[in-house]
From TrEMBL:
Keywords for this protein: Cell membrane, Ion transport, Membrane, Sodium, Sodium transport, Transmembrane, Transmembrane helix, Transport
UniProt-listed Pfam families: SSF (PF00474)
Species whose genome carries this gene: Ladona fulva (Scarce chaser dragonfly)
UniProt name for this protein: Sodium/solute symporter
Membrane topology: Multi-pass membrane protein
Superkingdom classification of source: Eukaryota
Amino acid sequence: MFILAPALALSQESHRHFGISKQGGVKAIIWSDTLHLVILNITLVILLVKGTIDVGGVDVVWNDNYNSGRIELFNFDPDPTIRHSFWTVFVGGTIYWTAICAVNQTAIQRFLALPNMREVYKTVWLTSIGKIVIYTILFYVGMLIYSSYKKCDPLASKMVQTTDQLLPLYVMDETESWPGFPGTVVASIFSSSIGDVATMLNGMTAVTVEDVVQGYFGKKLTPVQAGTISKIICFAYGLVSLGLVFIIAQFGTLLESNYSWTGMIAGVGLGIYTLGVFFPWANTKGVVGGIISSFAFLIWIVWGSTVAEQHGYQSAIKKPISVEGCLCNATLEVVHGPTE
C-alpha cells in the first residue's frame, strides 16, 4: 500500500511509472517520520487554503458536499453492509485503531524504544490527537476536491483512471503555476510512505530474527550474525513487498484495499491479544486454530467481495456526479444513485 500510493501520485504528475523501497534503523525512522509529517501537513494546509479561496469559501465547500449527500453526520442505520454509518465508523474504527495502536508490531517496537510507561502514555495521547488533526485535514481536502470538480468529474471524464489519482490531479490543477510546489507534495508523499515501509520492514525483520530464527529454531547468534541475517531478511521482505504492489493494484482503490486487508490482519492480531488477556488458560492449538479459521473466513469475505465487484456482480453505491461543465465530450458512467 505504502509503496503503491506514492508511485501512483508520481505517475499522475510525471506520466511515468515508479516503485520504491527502503530500510533503515528505528531511530532514523522516528526522526525522519517527524520531518515528513511536518512537510506533509504544511503542504496540505497550503493546498486547502488556496483551494478554499478558489471555490469561494468554506461555506461553499460544505454546501456542495452536503447537498450532494456526501456528508452524513447522523446515520444510525444498524445495517453492517453500509460503508459509512455511525456504527460502522465507531465500532469498526475503534477495533481497527485499537489493533493498529495497541498490538501492532510497529507500534510496540516504538513503545519499547521509550524509557518508561509514562512516555508511552504521552506518545499514545499525542498520536491520537495528531491522527484526529491529520484525518480532519484529509477529509476536508476530499470535500474540497469534490467542490472543485463538481461540474466535471475527473473519473467520468477520463482525466484520471482511478480515484487514487484525484489528489495528484488536483495538486497539478491548483498549483501548476507555483514552481516547486507540486514536486514538494510528491516528495512529502514519497517520504511519508518510505518511513512507513521502513518501519514495517524493520518490525517484521525483528520478529523473524527474534521469534523464528533465535526462538523457534533455537539459533544462538552473535550481534554481528544477527545484523547480517537481519539485513538479508529485510531485503527479502522488501522484494516481496514490491511484488505485492502489482497484486494490490488489481484490488480496487488503495483506500478500500488498505482497510480491507489491513483490517483483516489487525483484527486477527487484536483477537489473539484479547484472548490472552481475558482467557490466559488458552493453549497454542486453540490460538493457531482460531488464527487459521479467522483468516480463512475473512479472506473469503474480502477476496470474494473484490472478485464479485470486478466481475460486475456487485458494485459500491456511488454519490451523484456530473460532467456538464467539462470542456470536452465525456461518457458519464454514473450520473446519480442512492446515497449510502
